[in-house]
Design goal:
The complex is a heterodimer of chains A (120) and B (109).
Chain A (H helix, E strand, L loop, with lengths): L2 E5 L2 E3 L5 E8 L8 E6 L5 E7 L6 E3 L7 E6 L4 E6 L8 E8 L7 E4 L3 E5 L2
Parallel strand pairs in A: 2-11
Antiparallel strand pairs in A: 1-3, 3-8, 4-5, 4-9, 5-6, 7-8, 9-10, 9-11
Chain B lengths: L3 E3 L2 E4 L4 E8 L11 E5 L6 E5 L3 E2 L7 E6 L2 E7 L7 E9 L2 E4 L3 E5 L1
Parallel strand pairs in B: 2-11
Antiparallel strand pairs in B: 1-3, 3-8, 4-5, 4-9, 5-6, 7-8, 9-10, 9-11
The chains are: A mainly beta (120), B mainly beta (109).
């Protein structure tokens, strides 16, 4: 059974940093691309970033480019999102999602999310 | 960054058929945008219904189908059930980035 468990969310002040993690199990992690998708309270889904199986291609939404960095550790079956220069508009539930391919296509399985709140 | 457009809300009668659409401000949606469709119910994570325009996952209910219609991606629900009431999001590919539409709130009434 595919399982994706996000962690690292919490309350953080504007301008500060936070690192999210996603622990994957139930599939061969290094054979699939991965995504981060967020959802602000009461709002729709927003794609944040995606990374290919070997980290060869990493894509970012314009809204986070230059502030967020996605990485993965295939030996640890883990995906990460380093978020710097956080803003109030980054407040959201952050989902980790598995791609159905090793290149960047789109999510098939989703985690339950971790909540990030940016506020002073 | 491109904007992906969806109907904000639609209503369908139980047993009826409804088509949700997904457009792009950059021009016609094609198979090269690899359209995806997701369902999200309140308080739950999204689930993926359709990938690459019309492909279904093993868990996709049979009443859902994907296509391209009139320069847009389309999700058709045939034989709506009360449990199909949810938000539906499309997602399009633009190179190495992906963009979600604003979502359609589907009411079965």
């Amino acid at each position: 059974e595919v399982q994706l468990v996000e962690s690292g969310g919490g309350l953080v002040q504007p301008g500060r940093s936070l690192r999210l993690s996603c622990a994957a199990s139930g599939f061969t992690f290094d054979e699939y691309a991965m995504h981060w998708v967020r959802q602000a309270p009461g709002k729709g889904l927003e794609w944040v970033s995606g990374i290919t199986w070997n980290s060869g291609i990493i894509g970012y939404a314009d809204s986070v480019k230059g502030r967020f960095t996605t990485s993965r550790d295939n030996a640890k079956n883990s995906l990460y999102l380093q978020m710097n220069g956080l803003r109030a508009e980054d407040t959201a539930l952050y989902y980790c999602a598995k791609d159905w391919d090793d290149i960047l296509t789109g999510p098939d399985y989703w985690g339950q999310g971790t909540l990030v709140t940016v506020s002073s | 960054q491109a904007v992906v457009t969806q109907e904000p809300s639609l209503t369908v009668s139980p047993g009826g058929t409804v088509t949700l659409t997904c457009g792009s401000t950059t021009g016609p949606v094609t198979s090269g945008h690899y359209p995806y469709w997701f369902q999200q119910k309140p308080g739950q994570a999204p689930t993926t219904l359709i990938y690459d325009t019309r492909n279904k996952h093993s868990w996709t209910p049979v009443q859902f189908s994907g296509s391209l219609i009139g320069g847009k991606a389309a999700l058709t629900l045939s034989g709506a059930q009360p449990e199909d009431e949810a938000y539906y999001y499309c997602m399009l590919s633009y190179g190495d980035t992906r963009v979600f539409g604003g979502g359609t709130k589907l009411t079965v009434l």
